[in-house]
């Protein structure tokens, strides 16, 4: 198994700017490969998927790291694992690991699962503020 680490860093987000609108915040993304050769097309694909899946949460994300590695055991079996870690602002980090024989399938499933977990964490934070409120006065009765 190859032990060298290949690192790629990109700043992602939904950086679409329209006339009169500010550009949305972005987040750094690190793509690492262990024992797997990722060519330029693979890295571009992962960066594009990261932007599509996590661009909407860019304000809550500090950074994202994607690790792709070859996990073939002594008797064969599952070949690739994709581990996605999202560091959120003022929330615990989200880590999701997926394994598959195909690198693309492992990556797609890991990104989809991470997106669901990030959505849940961000939603939970937004709802936490609403649940703890108390009413200041009584509501007028209808009648």
- Total tally of structural domains: 1
What's the CATH class label?
A: Alpha Beta
**Helical percent range?**
25-40%
Largest sheet entry = 5 strands, mixed
Task: Work out the oligomeric state of the chains in this entry.
Answer: single chain
Query: What is the tally of beta strands?
Result: 5
Approximate strand percentage: 25-35%
Structural class by SSE content: alpha+beta
Number of helices: 2
Describe this structure in words.
- This protein has a single domain (5-13, 27-128), classed as Double Stranded RNA Binding Domain.
- It is 31% helix and 31% strand.
- It has helices at residues 40-54, 103-131, and strands spanning 5-13, 26-34, 61-70, 80-88, 94-100.
- It has a 5-stranded mixed sheet, covered by helices on one side.
- A hairpin with a 5-residue loop joins strand 4 and strand 5.
- Helix 1 runs parallel beside helix 2.
- The radius of gyration is 20 Å and the shape is elongated.
- The N and C termini lie far apart (77 Å).
């Amino acid at each position: 198994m190859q032990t060298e680490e290949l690192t790629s860093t990109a700043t992602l987000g939904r950086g679409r700017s329209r006339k009169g609108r500010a550009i949305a915040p972005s987040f750094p993304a690190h793509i690492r490969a262990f024992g797997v050769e990722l060519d330029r097309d693979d890295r571009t694909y992962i960066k594009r998927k990261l932007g599509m899946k996590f661009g909407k949460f860019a304000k809550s994300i500090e950074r994202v790291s994607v690790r792709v590695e070859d996990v073939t055991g002594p008797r064969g079996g599952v070949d690739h694992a994709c581990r996605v870690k999202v560091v959120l602002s003022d929330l615990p980090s989200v880590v999701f690991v997926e394994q598959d024989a195909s690198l693309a399938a492992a990556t797609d499933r890991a990104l989809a699962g991470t997106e669901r977990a990030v959505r849940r964490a961000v939603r939970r934070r937004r709802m936490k503020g609403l649940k703890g409120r108390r009413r200041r006065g009584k509501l007028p009765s209808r009648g």
